[in-house]
Amino acid sequence: MIIDLSVTNVDRVFQYRIPPELLGRVRVGVRVLAPFGRGDTLRKGYVVSLSHTPSFAPEKLKALREVDPGAVSVQEQMICLAWWMKERYGATMNQALKTVMPVKSAVAPKEEKTIVALRSREELSGLLREAEKKKYKARIRLYKALLENGELPYRLTAQKLGVTAASLRPLEEKGILKIRTEEKSRDPVKGYAPAAAPVVLNEDQKRAAAAVKASMDAGEARTWLLYGITGSGKTEVYMELISHVLDQGRQVIVLIPEISLTYQTVMRFYRRFGNRVSIINSRLSAGERYDQLARAARGDIDIMIGPRSALFTPFERLGLIIIDEEHEGAYQSELSPRYHAREVAAMRATMNQATLVLGSATPSVESFYKAERGEYGLLTLGRRAKKDSRLARVHVVDLREELAEGNRSMFSRKLKELMEERLLRKEQIMLFMNRRGYAGFVSCRSCGEAMKCPHCDVSLTYHRDGILRCHYCGHEVRMPRVCPVCGSPYIAPFGSGTQKLEEITKRTFPQARVLRMDADTTAKKGAHEEILEAFMEGEADILIGTQMIVKGHDFPRVTLVGVMAADLSLYAPDFRSSERTFELLTQASGRAGRGELPGDVVIQTYAPDHFAITAAAEQDYGQFYRQEFLYRKMMGYPPAAGLLSIQLSSRKEEAAAAAMEDLQKWIRREFCFEEISVIGPVNGSPYKVNDIYRKILYIKSESYDILLKVRKSAQKREEENERYKNVNFQAAVQ
Ligand code: ADP
Ligand code: ZN
Ligand code: ZN
């Protein structure tokens, strides 16, 4: 018996003999120890396939030493998925294996804790009022959650509501609650039972759910695009489909971008499906992740909710994958293999004969294109689900006109007027600034020198604590007192990021209570939830923030959303910049008027005629899509054509440049008879990150297969040619 083994850190597959004593224990996906190289040092590797036919003389094969005792075994399917990812994204087998197996070692399973209320609802309400009087914030949140649900999952509650063990102890002593601890192998039907009766779906929702269910029952394994405006009830449709799949004894993965994975969202699923649900996210420790994946592998749970990486949940009977907010950039991995969750989900769904549902209020151009061509089934929800909830009125303000009429403030007259009105009426306001610290860079007013990160080709950003920070690598320095170049004391931060906006807002509206949410104020664990919760509780009138505040949160008292400079994201060096802008503006507009009160949105912009902005103002996805598709077609960008980007990077600037020079000449020559166009090379944006220089070459073609071929041969050249010795190669086809 022979095995093919992928040895860690070596991107090749090696064959080994299985000694008789290990025969029953070696399966595909198991981690093993094998003698490797001259000294026969033991290396770890994964079994990627088993066979009876050696590719060499059998007596030359070394024998496998041992099955790694602490290793997680993966399904054969995950190995296949890794192979596919390696091919599709041009990664090494080890990188691909690491991705499909998020946790490598077994960690002793921990016990599961649950917070259980010991008092009646009336008593809890009394305690809540008392806590409100005393302004005990964590307790208020806890009592509210307990009123909704008598039992709460401990880990999630502690993490998301900012409740600590120390704050629970006195409540335990007073007999208000107890913490129940169960062994890992507990009875799965115990715990918190499903509490919420499902809502009655409206006609649109019913139609959408029925179409998917009929297709599932017919044994099809289709992909569907659920295009529904914000608040149209997509989540309810997901839950209806999940329930159908569970009835068939199959399992479900729900992807939600990390940023939208709030306590409220997760509890909606818990309330409906009880402890058949688990959640995985980046804040879990390795042990906790292992626990959750092990539960999935054992079949203790049927629904896994999480970001991108939840795709690799080892369910044996996967029947449905849902990708909520499918347009989100976070579904694209930044690490090799640079996979897109949508593509990997489609692959996993195919392997399992499972259904894939993509949901969004602003579908990606790629997905809508496929839906239009009939590749995906298209389901539409055109109205908000709650009766009295309407779409907001949108006002577009031309900032050039404001300036021409002498208004130099960050607030247009329209926005200021509406804000004053809202503050008087005690309604809430959100101010959205797309892109954190887009300014805030520091420069010398005398010589013009800008303070840059020594490791990255980007400006440092000023923070109020007097620290300059690099948002790419985290490098920090104190703000210098004088210009390091000319010695002038006239050195100061420029422009207006979210911090600056906060300052100016406080100055302009001294009567208002202001909260800010961006990467800086949410760096601490749990801070994200705390800010949202405080705003929800009405502890502030205005919430200022970046992207973070526009994603999926439901604030019934917000009736005004201001977008400070809508066109900033239009100038990102990326062919998707219009799409991103449209998405952000639409999502931001979706925040106003979620409750019973009507909402207004003010979009301030220097480019009021840009189609991404006019379409967003009219909340008209179709209009945006048609324009954008024309542009993509004209420019030969995806999905109208395929795009291959190849990045060569190196710590040595000349090495990256020389290698790229070789590569582009070689590709132009090698593929001169193919229908491709080569663009560039250009410098990465930013050019230098973490002391590594990045050069990028783009290759466009109508044919996807040609691009895959180019990538493969380019990679081969990179591996075999001396010129590429100190250079890292990365390539992605989209
Ligand atoms: P989406 O996921 O599309 O943003 P949600 O599923 O979160 O929409 O629904 C928005 C709001 O409308 C939620 O508060 C939800 O409980 C409510 N809702 C959804 N469907 C219905 C329905 N059929 N009847 C009543 N309320 C509904
Ligand atoms: Zn200077
Ligand atoms: Zn840096």
Q: What do these coordinates show?
A:
This protein is an alpha/beta fold. It folds into five domains: 2-100, GIY-YIG endonuclease, CATH 3.40.1440; 110-184, no CATH class; 203-381, Rossmann fold (3-Layer(aba) Sandwich), CATH 3.40.50.300; 393-438 and 496-632, P-loop containing nucleotide triphosphate hydrolases (Rossmann fold); 642-733, Ribosomal protein S10 (Alpha-Beta Plaits). The chain has 21 helices and 30 strands. The strands form seven sheets. A seven-stranded parallel sheet has the order 11-12-10-13-14-9-15, sandwiched between helices. Strand 13, helix 11 and strand 14 form a beta-alpha-beta unit. The longest helix is centred in the C-terminal third of the chain and has 18 residues, at 653-670. The protein is globular, with a radius of gyration of 28 Å. The two termini are 40 Å apart. Bound molecules: adenosine-5'-diphosphate and zinc ion (ZN) (2 copies).
Please outline the helices and strands:
Elements: E1 2-7, E2 13-17, E3 31-36, E4 41-51, E5 66-67, H1 76-89, H2 93-100, E6 112-117, H3 121-134, H4 137-148, E7 151-153, H5 154-161, H6 165-173, E8 177-182, H7 203-217, E9 223-228, H8 234-247, E10 251-255, H9 263-273, E11 277-279, H10 286-298, E12 303-306, E13 318-324, H11 341-352, E14 355-360, H12 365-372, E15 377-381, E16 393-398, H13 399-404, H14 413-425, E17 428-432, E18 442-444, E19 461-463, E20 467-469, E21 476-478, E22 491-493, H15 498-508, E23 514-517, H16 527-536, E24 542-545, E25 558-563, H17 577-589, E26 600-605, H18 611-617, H19 621-635, E27 642-650, H20 653-670, E28 677-689, E29 692-701, H21 704-720, E30 728-733
Parallel strand pairs: 9-14, 9-15, 10-12, 10-13, 11-12, 13-14, 16-26, 17-24, 17-25, 23-24, 25-26
Antiparallel strand pairs: 1-2, 1-4, 3-4, 3-5, 6-7, 6-8, 18-22, 19-20, 20-21, 27-29, 27-30, 28-29
The protein binds adenosine-5'-diphosphate and zinc ion (ZN) (2 copies).
